[in-house]
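Fold sample X.
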Amino acid sequence: MIGLAIFGAVSFYLLSLAIVSLPLGVAYAVWTGIGSAGSVIVGMLFFKESRDLKRIIFISCIIISVVGLKFVTN
């Protein structure tokens, strides 16, 4: 439980750093996208969740979108 609080605080801190150089909407989209994709990947690796091709394709779309947002943002 303490680890969750520490990682949550670090995550919010890193989000606040990102907002300095990125627009709020983009920073939040990237933050939530990384969190969503990361949760699914952890589930597949450690909790034996489905590794269905459709899941992998859609997670890849999230990751590609996050990278794309970085390229198109000043």
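Fold sample Y, listed below.
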Amino acid sequence: MDQFTIKYPGDKAGLLNKIKSTIGDKGKLAGDEQQGSFEGSTPVGKFEGSYTIVGDDITISISKKPFLVSTGRIKDEFEKALKKV
């Protein structure tokens, strides 16, 4: 399992609502401002994982990802998405 942490000092409830609306029918996000899980798909395969939020730290654990996609790439995409919301 791969894991990384991202800092996000903003409103977590608002963040989760925006992520849920952005995901739409491309994936699933279940959880609250403390922990939850997500899944989705890309052109090269599916991914799954979970998150925990403690203070301003969001720790992402990836339990399933396409072989061709690195954890670094996934982290970059999460960081980009957080900047958009």
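Sample Y note: The helical segments are 12-23, 71-84.
Also: DSSP finds two helices and five strands in the chain.
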